[in-house]
Amino acid sequence: MFELLSDKIGKVFHNLGGKGKLSEKDIDEALRQVRLALLEADVNLKVVKNFTSRVKEQALSAGVLEGLNPTQQVVKIVHKELITILGGKQIPLTPARYSPSVIMLVGLQGGGKTTTAAKLALHLRHSGQHSLLVAADIRRPAAIEQLITLGKQLDIPVYSEGTDSAPTVICTHALKRAREIAVNWLIVDTQGRLHVDGVMMQELSDLKRVLQPSEVILVVDAMTGQEAVKVAEGFHSRVGLTGLILTKMDGDARGGAALSIKSVTGVPVKFIGIGEKLDALETFHPDRLASRILGMGDMLTFIEKAEKTLDEKKAKELEKKLHTSSFDMEDLLDQLQQLKKMGSLGQLVDMIPGISTLNRKMTREVDDEQLKRVEAIIYSMTLEERRNPNIIDGSRRRRIARGSGTTPQEINQVLNQFRQAQKLMKQMSQGKAQHFLSMLR
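User: That's the sequence. What structure does it adopt?
Assistant: Structure tokens below.
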């Protein structure tokens, strides 16, 4: 997310940081480059103008130009204004007074509505809330089959009447069923179209009248940039949206939709889709995303991911191994498997302050495919070799290479990287690990 924008803005502030005191000319030049970076990221022109004018007004105050660390103060101003255009604060789902609360998911075909319905139900279950999914997209039978399959996969109930009933009838019956099984949320996957039209909007208005939803959420593809903003405007003017879910944010290196859509439409982004996996749905936090854009990382989201996926017992065992400096290849394999549960390497590195600025370089050198190769190499070792890698000689390297489909040179690289990791773990055991592991637990 925001890869291009983050790189460009990072360079602007790096250049400012080398100047010491700042002049009005320095501020103007920096904001010119920031403005170009935002426009290249496909951010709405009006949003860019308002953003840069607000930053300039604050940055040119005497307190900033004449104070200590003026560049840091400018970064602080930019951070605050980025939070503002992203929406200001996180807006949670609004439950109804009586259960079930209804969420109508609307959008065009191809935006990821059906998969997002399942992701949202899973997200709610993590917080102890249960949902009934409703297959109301009778125009596309594949959507009904897909939702039923996803429901079985996640063990989440799905209400369907196939394509024989009208969506209003299906939803009326689904509401009754939701009350019978006492779920907290009814999540309705509505019909999509290839474009916004009057017939589509009338169907959604009819459904809204029947369901009386507490949330009407547009699911829209972030990679379409300003087209996503136009779609949001169209839906909001005709149906009345309460929130947005931006899908495919992990594939959007620019971020124009996320940075424009709230300012243009007035509708808050509530969630973002960050991958194909069913747990790849994040709550939208404007402050955290602003920090990611500026290379400050996002440790809160990192810790939340860790709490969901990391095994507490294994964390304690790892802490013990760090204290005794007995970290071996078995432990490395276990850590790789737990990291994979948390998401892609690039997304995780992007959340760690300091390291996030090296993200592009690191993920080029060690990508997810290479991690799979490391796993294959470790699986091809004997238990004795994993626990004591020092015994791996030339003949053992050749055998491991054959078993993992790699080369002896790659085995050497993994062993060298492991030794470096051991040194790092030893340093962490001298005082830095305890605090980090306590956060994960």
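Residues 408-440 form the longest helix (33 residues).
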